[in-house]
# Entry
Amino acid sequence: MGRRPLGVGELGGVTYAHAGKGVVVARARTRDAGGVIHRPQARGATKEEALERLQAKARRLAVAGEEIGPDTPLGDLFQMWLEDREGEIRPQSHRFYKDIVRWLTPIVGGIPVGECRPARVKRILDEIEAARGSGAALDHARTALSGAFVVAVEEGALDHNPLLSLRKRKGRQQRPKALNVEQVRALRAAIRRREERAARYTGESVALLRIVSEVMLGSGLRIAEVLGLRHRDIDWETNTIEVTGTLIDEADTWHLVRQDELKGRNQARFIELPGFAMAALAEARRNASDLPSRHPDKPAIQGQATGRWVSARNVRRQLRDVRNDPELVAALAETGIEPDELKPHMLRRTAATLVATTSRDIKRAQALLGHQHESTTRRQYIGIAFKTVGDASMLQQLLGNNPWPDDGPGRSD
# Structure
């Protein structure tokens, strides 16, 4: 007696495999309403979760029938890709993918997937590069397109992912932009002038931008990692911080929460801070004026509402106020930096670049930034084939020469 035919929407031959820490992949066969056999797969944190998502895909095929085919536009496949990825990745990553789809859909969303042969995909990438004008946008578009093509392959609309037939395009490699020592001095002076203006109107110093920028310059941390520091993460005796988490917006409520994970795996680390960065954290601690706000799990850097996490948006807004300062603009122009390019991430790049250019040890720059691969440090942060990075004493020597005199704004006794 032969095997019973696979029913519409029914799963057959379910198998499971592990795809890294905490990720289970479920695969199976199923039949759509038109009788076509598909081999979908789904990911989850457990077998049960992966199976549930696989069943959802099977139900979608059972209802849609041959709805997904060569005439399906890329815009629809982008949305299916986003649905498949939801729950498999961190909420902030999913929001990032949604933003890619938002700007990519008007450019290519109407193209039928059946027309996406390698030659056409190459032209699509050319159109994206012309429309967006950046290598990063091109990489992001490839991520979304690849996701859409994988869905199309799983649903039988394509035989293979056409991106795999193309050589990865290398954009024009530019040396990553960072501040030099004189430009750091100019930035500090501009921040000081902003604080002095604010003090005249509010009667108090607005020190948030200064504190965050000093810690970023002294540690090479991302802004969300600096804002995610807690009191317990600071060792005042050894002048070190423990980096184990990052500050994120919750997916649904947009409330600020600390995530006890970093952007990449194995990035948790201890960093010895130079004196100027420790002084900034000490000022932040003094600003946490009441006992509850000094609880070990409370933010190390707090806003005017003590005890609360500070949004990176507030820091970015304050930096936008500063970067058009005429003296700072003139200093940036010396190395071709436009004011709009001065963003918090440039401070992270500055820390790595300054110590690398002084000590010529890219391995230590890589460790400072928490990168898994040296190529990431070299390509995106340093841009020069250094041999040997610096440490806290070097950053203190470069940037810590009494940056904020005693009579400057923000001093607390």
In short: Confidence is low (pLDDT under 50) at residues 383-390. The CA atoms of residues 82 and 306 lie 38 Å apart. The first helix runs from residue 47 to 64. Strands lie at 12-18, 24-31, 37-38, 41-44, 234-235, 240-243, 246-249, 256-259, 269-272.
